[in-house]
Design goal:
This is Type II restriction enzyme SfiI. Pfam families: RestrictionSfiI. By secondary structure, the chain is mainly beta. The protein is built from three helices and 13 strands, in the order αβββββββββαββαββ. It has one domain: ECO RV Endonuclease, Chain A (3-Layer(aba) Sandwich). The mean pLDDT is about 90.
Length: about 200
């Protein structure tokens, strides 16, 4: 699809994510969910000891490198503590840690699907890797970003001088160092048209 589609890579990534997740097995809740991501669903998560209501937010990224991904504050419940241009920032994630719809609570979960691609001399897009990222919920702030010096973020791609909203980049390396299972990589074989990888726990 990456190679054949005439669309922009961001649009291709969004289409692939939606098509895949529409096939995701599970127990959906007939509840409209609001958010600034490509895919969002209310669902039940069946655990051995209990059933949990979850609001799942998934956003797609398409870039030529696979070290990080930019997110908006409206896409995360985890706060951002980092230093930028000599200033100490403490930005609150705009998603609630626990979402509420029609009087019922849902654990808020944000994931990223990151597509790394390369262009050939003709401008065709070749998919190389897919990275799946599970972002921590804001209730895990003290584990994943307790201080400015200890976090999982890099300075975002926004220009405050132009009035752009605050953004930040999730470092795959830093997040993986704290919890390896939160970053999973698949390598795409264009000849065989298949992704391969092994689950990291």
């Amino acid at each position: 699809m990456f190679l054949m589609s005439p669309d922009k890579v961001k649009d291709i990534a969004e289409d692939i994510t939606r098509e895949l997740l529409d096939r995701l097995p599970g127990f959906n809740v007939p509840q409209r969910v609001y958010g600034t991501v490509d895919y969002k669903r209310a669902r039940y998560v069946i655990l051995p000891e209990q059933t949990v209501r979850q609001v799942l937010f998934i956003d797609s990224k398409a870039e030529k490198e696979n070290r990080s991904a930019t997110i908006q504050m409206s896409q995360t419940s985890l706060g951002i503590k980092q230093s930028r241009s000599g200033q100490m920032l403490d930005e609150k994630g705009l998603l609630p840690e626990i979402s509420e719809y029609e009087g019922k609570n849902y654990i808020t979960t944000t994931c990223l699907v990151h597509f790394m691609y390369q262009d050939d001399s003709s401008g065709a897009h070749h998919l190389r890797e897919v990275t799946l990222v599970g972002l921590p919920n804001g209730r895990l702030q003290d584990r994943y970003n307790p201080t400015v010096e200890d976090g999982i973020r890099l300075v975002g791609r926004n220009a405050p001088s132009l009035g752009e909203d605050f953004r930040t980049r999730v470092s795959f390396h830093r997040l993986k160092a704290k919890a390896e299972w939160r970053v999973q990589r698949l390598v795409y074989n264009e000849i065989n048209e298949e992704c391969t990888g092994s689950w990291r726990s």
